[in-house]
Amino acid sequence: MGRIVLLPEEVASQVAAGEVIERPASVVKELVENSIDAGAGRIEVAIVRGGAAVIRVVDDGIGMDRDDALLSLERHATSKIRSGHDLARIHTLGFRGEALPSIASVSRFRLSTRLHDGLEGTEILVNGGKMDAVRASGEAPGTQIEVRSLFYNLPARRKFLRSENTEASHVQHQLSLQAIGHPNIGFVSIRDQTVVFQAPPAKTLADRIRDLRGSELFEKLLEIIPEAVNGITISGLIGKAGVSRSTRAEQVLFVNGRPVENITIQHGLREGYHTALMKGQYPVTFLFVEMDPEAVDVNVHPAKREVRFREPDSVRNGVAETIRKTLETDRQRWTHSFQKPVETPKTPLREPVTDSTPALIPAAEQFALRRDWAEFHATPVNSAPLPVAVPPAAESCQPTSAAPAPNYRPEAPNEFKILGVLGKLYILMENEEGLVLVDQHAAHERILFEKLRRQMELEGVPTQRLLIPLTVGVTPKDYDWIATNAQALEKMGFALEPFGNSTLKIDGIPQFFRTDDPSVTIRQLVDELRSMTTTTSRLRMGEDVIARTVCRYAIKANDELRRPEVEKLLRDLMDCELPYCCPHGRPTMIQIGYGELEKKFGRKV
Fold first, then answer.
1. Whole-angstrom Cα distance, residue 431 to residue 126?
2. Which H or E run includes 232?
3. What is the pLDDT of residues 11-22, one digit of tens each?
4. What is the pTM of this model?
């Protein structure tokens, strides 16, 4: 008896604060969200010593009277919801009523607030959860909250704080997320009495991104045309093909205006970009998902960083399809005025002589796999201009704006003139913006990859029957995934059936699939299934093998191409779905603008 006791209110508040307040950035997040919910048009955040010494948040929202100000410091007191039914349709960023009392219990806290039509405001001082003073104040309309000596009464928690620069960077990141998510609100960030950034209210998200991230990044983004599908509207900006980062630092996701981290949306992004990015790279995105609040649960994480969808497949499919359409729109932009060159007379083609024919390369495509690709009459490479269109360049070599250079520009704005071939690998062309380089190996990889994948999709994926079936034990969770996607696996060439408790019997596999280690193969299979959508290609599981195969048999460096061959290569490249990158995600072409060339030669600073 007597082993279970009721914790004191002070200790209970500190325990609750440990779930909500991790570091100074958590304080800024909660206070800024309250300001946004209060209808603020301008929010100013100032910190000292990374936020451990002082955090001050000032807004011009609706403010509070004395009774509401006092009640706001009580646990589970909120103006956002009234009953349990409201939890299923949350429209605000905050709703639990835990932020202010939790912050006040681990700091020296000051709250000053005033209604816009109030004659005077209210000031409340709290020291470690104990109220010290309540008095009238003459602050401007709105709310001002000052948090000093964070975790002063919890020395163990304070020791876990990082350096001032690290904590300040986390605060800056949180404030940047809120500024991107709400471009109609003005934000000011101050660190140690120095203004870090000022973001005035913007009319559009594009203006806010340009203000915060700069024009250089903004020029590499594509705007998503919002379209409601199954009650889900997706908007924002995404990076062009080839624009990527090695981490998810630039992958900013919002659900109903709330910045989140969600694996379902990340899988949709991965599926939408597919071969437009190199493996291990992550796209640059500022993605906004708007949906019925009843279809998303935001009450699944103490800090509200994660959400749960009622129909995750619909969200994943919607994101993937939106990304594909946006990339296709960018492709249509530069192919709209595309004019194909006049066909060059050709002599009959001669089949190349090879020792063996790869099983994955159709015989009809063999003529394009060697340098004696075709027998054409030799013509000078730099003869006539070739009117073709070139897609946006990869991130590392984006076009650079420059002053006019009429002596070097072709007459037609969309006409590209072939200049020659550099190092028997790079096709050089000239356009109105400068120099274009095409990697003939990467370009031919993309052409063969799409042709081979399209042919196998039409004819079906060949299944290789096993003489001795394999039995593989999997976890119950993976077993359920495989059982749910049995029909999709059958289309991909797999023959699987249950064989006891959490055990699968494998009778057949696609011809291009390896079976050195069945357990590893199955785990990889499940990982792919988790990120696939209903429109996923039946060959997705074997695309890596296809990509490696076409890489081996595509035109290589030092393979000399005559002008008709170069023209055919470029025409075929422009007909591809993703002509601006090879199956591995590397760029097929890059643009070097006149401005960059002039800087190299010292003609401009």
1. 67
2. strand 232-239
3. 877 777 777 889
4. 0.74
Q: Where are the beta strands (DSSP E) in 499-552?
A: 503-510
Do the beta carbons of residue 439 and residue 394 sit within 8 Å?
no
The answer to whether 521 and 531 are in contact (CB under 8 A) is no
Tens-place pLDDT, residues 439-454: 999 889 888 888 887 8
Question: Rounded distance, CA 26 to CA 462, Å?
Answer: 54
CA dist., res. 541 & res. 124, Å (int)? 62
Q: If you write DSSP's letter for every residue of 377-398 in order, what string do you get?
A: ----TTSS-B----PPPPGGG-
Domains of the chain: 9-199 (3.30.565.10), 214-335 (3.30.230.10), 363-452+554-600 (3.30.1540.20), 463-537 (3.30.1370.100)
Q: Which of 409, 466, 462, 344 is nearest to 593 (CA)?
A: 409
Closest Cα partner for 66 from 110, 138, 123, 119? 123
Instruction: Tell which residue, 464, 443, 445, has the closest CA to residue 453.
Output: 445
pLDDT (tens digit, 9 = 90+) per residue, 497-526?
Answer: 888 788 888 888 776 666 566 567 666 766
Q: Do residues 108 and 148 lie in contact, with contact meaning Cβ atoms separated by under 8 Å?
A: yes
Question: Cα-flanking dihedrals φ and ψ of residue 389, to 5°?
Answer: -105, 145
Q: Is the pLDDT of residue 171 over 90?
A: yes
Please tell me the predicted confidence (pLDDT) of residue 538: 53
